[in-house]
């Protein structure tokens, strides 16, 4: 069982990281959160700070000062720190290189210099597959041809991880995630729709043609899958394992807009589709049709509780409450 371990969570004050940190503390793990608080916030983990098992370190992993010592003191590293905003790659691609690839390299170097075997668990993304011709897309689909710099940076990080785990005798677990949604999220289509409606309850701008269709995973489902696979990873004898993590279906952007409008009580809401780029995409690099095959994950003994539609409904309710408080 994954309990009573010494672990690091990079990006532990972020959306996913804060939920993971809470789960690890519930399992009596000693957790060191590393975050530069550029995207994550203390608000996300404020309810945890009194735990004697939690240590919070403010550190810029692009230029780390204490990373080597922290890694040396722990056995498992959950690497979540990244810039997750796909759209930024069109105007500032260097951001994805520095905050995703360079940060991953620095972490791997800290592991290498420590000279003791570690387990690295990395949250990658469905966007590494690009516009896959096989949907649902399995882990062995290839070649992976990302169409965004975000997807490219995550695929580059995957390559670094597999090379380091094999060369320097560490264990690696790579999780390719569908769109993860829920309270505390501060970007993505649901967050955008709610904030737009709070500003204007009569008209909603929708990027693209609305027919983009993707898989969505509720945050508690992700944490369940992550811990299930983490337990298997630390007990395995293999070097690196790759798993898709998502739901068993998908939902269109237009359907999401309708669910948000219903939950917000906007029965007469007008939709304004921008038309998008490259055949109806919301932006350059937007994968229009995405669903991951999770057969490998299901075969390991875990499956999601919520469908994409149910995940969206839960996320809308939670985010609506949060944003109205603000």
Give a description of the structure.
With 326 residues, the protein is an alpha/beta fold. The chain folds into two domains: 6-180 and 217-245, Rossmann fold, CATH 3.40.50.720; 183-214 and 248-290 and 306-325, UDP-galactose 4-epimerase, domain 1, CATH 3.90.25. The chain is 39% helix and 18% strand. It has ten helices and 14 strands. It has helices spanning 15-26, 42-45, 67-72, 93-114, 149-168, 189-199, 219-235, 253-264, 295-299, 308-325, and strands at 6-10, 30-35, 54-58, 76-79, 119-125, 171-177, 179-181, 203-206, 213-214, 216-218, 240-245, 251-252, 270-273, 289-290. The strands form four sheets. It has a seven-stranded parallel beta sheet, with helices on both faces. Strands 12-9-14 form a three-stranded mixed beta sheet. Helix 4 (93-114) links the parallel strand 4 and strand 5 (119-125). Helix 4 (93-114) runs parallel beside helix 5, helix 6 packs across helix 10 and helix 8 (253-264) crosses helix 10 (308-325). The radius of gyration is 19 Å and the shape is globular.
Structural class: alpha/beta
Instruction: Work out the strand percent.
Output: 15-25%
DSSP strand tally: 14
What overall form do the CA principal axes indicate? Answer: globular
- Listing every helix as H and every strand as E from the N terminus to the C terminus, the arrangement reads EHEHEHEHEHEEHEEEHEEHEEHH
Query: Largest beta sheet: what is the strand line-up?
Result: 3-2-1-4-5-6-11
- Distance separating the two termini: 39 Å
The biggest beta sheet, please?
A: 7 strands, parallel
Oligomerization status of the protein chains: single chain
The portion of residues assigned to helices is 25-40%
CATH domain topology of the largest domain: Rossmann fold
What count of helical segments does DSSP give?
10
Task: Tell me the count of domains.
Answer: 2
Under CATH at level 1, the class of the largest domain stands as Alpha Beta
Uncertain residue segments = none
CATH superfamily of the largest domain: NAD(P)-binding Rossmann-like Domain
Mean pLDDT: 94
């Amino acid at each position: 069982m994954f309990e009573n371990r010494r672990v690091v969570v990079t990006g532990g004050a972020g959306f996913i990281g804060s939920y993971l940190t809470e789960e690890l503390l519930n399992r009596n793990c000693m957790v060191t959160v590393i975050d530069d608080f550029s995207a994550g916030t203390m608000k996300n983990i404020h309810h945890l700070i009194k735990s004697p098992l939690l240590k919070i370190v403010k550190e810029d992993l692009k230029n780390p000062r204490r990373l080597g010592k922290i890694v040396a003191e722990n056995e498992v590293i959950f690497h979540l720190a990244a810039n997750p905003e796909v759209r930024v790659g069109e105007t500032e691609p260097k951001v994805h290189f520095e905050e995703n690839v360079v940060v991953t390299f620095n972490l791997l170097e800290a592991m290498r210099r420590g000279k003791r075997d570690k387990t690295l668990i990395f949250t990658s993304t469905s966007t590494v597959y690009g516009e896959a011709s096989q949907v649902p897309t399995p882990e062995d689909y290839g070649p992976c041809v990302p169409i965004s710099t975000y997807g490219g940076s995550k695929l580059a990080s995957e390559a670094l991880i597999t090379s380091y785990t094999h060369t320097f005798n560490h264990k690696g677990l790579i999780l390719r995630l569908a769109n993860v949604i829920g309270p505390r999220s501060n970007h993505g289509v649901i967050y955008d729709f709610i904030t737009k409606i709070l500003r204007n309850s009569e008209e909603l701008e929708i990027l693209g043609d609305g027919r983009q269709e993707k898989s969505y995973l509720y945050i508690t489902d992700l944490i369940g899958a992550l811990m299930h696979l983490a337990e298997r990873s630390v007990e395995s004898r293999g070097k690196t394992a790759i798993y898709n993590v998502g739901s068993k279906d998908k939902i269109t952007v237009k359907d999401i807009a309708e669910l948000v409008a219903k939950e917000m009580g906007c029965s007469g809401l007008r939709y304004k589709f921008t038309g998008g780029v490259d055949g109806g995409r919301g932006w350059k690099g937007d994968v229009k049709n995405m669903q991951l095959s999770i057969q490998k994950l299901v075969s390991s003994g875990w499956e999601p509780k919520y469908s994409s539609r149910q995940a969206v409904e839960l996320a809308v309710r939670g985010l609506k409450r949060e944003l109205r408080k603000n």
